[in-house]
Amino acid sequence: MFAHVDINNCYVSCERLFRPELEGKVVVVLSNNDGCVIARSNEAKAIGIKMADAEFIVRKNLKEHNAVIFSSNYPLYADMSARLMNNLARYTYTLMVYSIDEAFMALGNIQGIDLDKHAATISANVMRHTGLPITIGVGPTLSLAKLANKAAKKQKRPYLLLDTPEKIDETVLNFPIEDVWGVGLAYYNKLVERGIKTAHDFRQLKADFVRKQMTVQGWRLHQELWGKPCNVIRDVAERSKGIESSQSFNTYQTLLDPIEEAVAMHAATVALKLRQQNSMALMLTVYIRTNKHNVKHDQHYPSITVKIPVAANNTHQLTCVAVQALRAIWQPGYNYLKTGVRVTGIIPAGEVQFNLYNSYEHSREQKLSGLIDELNSRYGRGTLRMAAEGFDKKWVMKQEFLSPQYTTNWRQLITTK
Amino acid sequence: MLRVKKQRAKRDVLGFRLPMLTYEEPELDVSEIIVIDPDNTFFMRMGSDAMTAYHILPEHVLVIDRTLTPVSGSIVVFYHEGDFYTREYVPVANHLELRAGKPADCIIINQTQNFNCWGVVTLTLNPVLQPQHKIGRYARVCTC
């Protein structure tokens, strides 16, 4: 048996833990640069705020309902997420962290366990200890566990157990097909064409037919909905195939210098992520974009992918390559709004192919990057950085409604009376 | 809770091995006895002199554990009418007293089901350095 656990309205719940008066109020969290809505309280959903609504479009509606708005405070969300995951790990031998607010737990083969009691215990303890509201769905496969979770939310229950075929039959009967995990827009359109509206309808299809029409992914889903496991829990994170760092500017940028600073910052972030997973990259892409929504401006979306001379993960080299690449694509006369750096061709750090001419030349830079990481992890991110990242950073994103970093900064603790 | 112990920084010794290297133990880490359950421990700061009688002075850092259930006499942090408070938790007959040093600072909660304990304070950090010592990095001993 598997459990799927997620935090209800994750980012909003993290903010509410330290602002309990926001319970029952309309609360939204905005994306980077305060662009659009990325998290909504149930009350915000009720007044018709949709996911990814642009802030300036829903501004009036939010104001009318006295909504509380937050800029995204990722240090806080990441810390609360880690706390939740560590708590969940106490109740299972295998935990797969699926995203910042979701995880799968293996619950089978635990000796003498009453699943219903176990789920109730996890639910009560984790909610009390972390202060975050969670929902738990339990089922014989990952897809059914995820389905159980959604069904539990609809029934406003903290957890739902699908441990018998009867319970599964009952739950899938009216479960909308578009809410099934893995059914995207393409599959949804295909299925609705054939009059399939619920998970129950989908289950009634013949397995051979599903395989022909929906590739092996659809077939796996079909099997899983019948309780035959096809997906397995992977508790070791896979090496990511690409790493990207990007962000919009707060205003249009027409000069090269500030864009260079931003690109240097993204390159440093990407390099850090590479080092954290102990891998190196062979290719680096830099892109810049104008605002496609502003029809008055000339549009320009150049992008360039360059080969890094020798696979690297040190800040020095990647910054150098990224800035050079940017200079090759930047053109005067455009109002740029966004830039990003992406690396691909990621290989384990131990498998780097050197060539005749560079043998060991970069080992000093490698050591320097390690030292920078150590100092930054002790004294805070950005303590030591490349001068290319700039000092005044006039281009950094807007965060007008940022909450304090209650759990990660000694200077921003809550003061009690 | 499981916590990875830091190993003492090792120094390479040239020539011969020091005999004591065989007996090395990880160094003492004070966070081991201050934070029992790191995943569920939060920090706040005392902002008033209401709890001076309990040796909790303004500016003390409070170590708060959410896994503990308050019992009579616990020092708890709770949210009440727009503010976080630190008080002694004393259930009496059919109401709840949240006591402070002075009666004026006490809070009485009649409907106990409305009371939501945020966490139990396990200890407070009280810096006792003299002012002339509070310079450089020593200015930040348990303060900010």
Automatic annotation (TrEMBL), chain A:
Any one Gene Ontology BP term: DNA repair
One Gene Ontology cellular component annotation held by this UniProt entry: cytosol
Keyword DNA damage recorded: yes
Start and end residues of each UmuC domain: 2-184
PROSITE patterns tied to this protein: UMUC
Keywords: DNA damage, DNA repair, SOS mutagenesis, SOS response
CDD domains the UniProt entry points to: PolY_Pol_V_umuC
Source taxon at top rank: Bacteria
Pfam family, one: IMS
GO terms for MF: damaged DNA binding; DNA-directed DNA polymerase activity
Protein family membership: Belongs to the DNA polymerase type-Y family.
Name under which the protein is recorded: DNA polymerase V
Organism: Mucilaginibacter auburnensis
Classification lineage: Bacteria, Pseudomonadati, Bacteroidota, Sphingobacteriia, Sphingobacteriales
UniProtKB/TrEMBL annotation, chain B:
Top-level taxon of origin: Bacteria
InterPro entries xref list: LexA/Signal_pep-like_sf, Peptidase_S24_S26A/B/C
One Pfam match: Peptidase_S24
Domain Peptidase S24/S26A/S26B/S26C: 24-121
Protein name: DNA polymerase V
Species in which this protein is naturally found: Mucilaginibacter auburnensis
Native organism taxonomy: Bacteria, Pseudomonadati, Bacteroidota, Sphingobacteriia, Sphingobacteriales
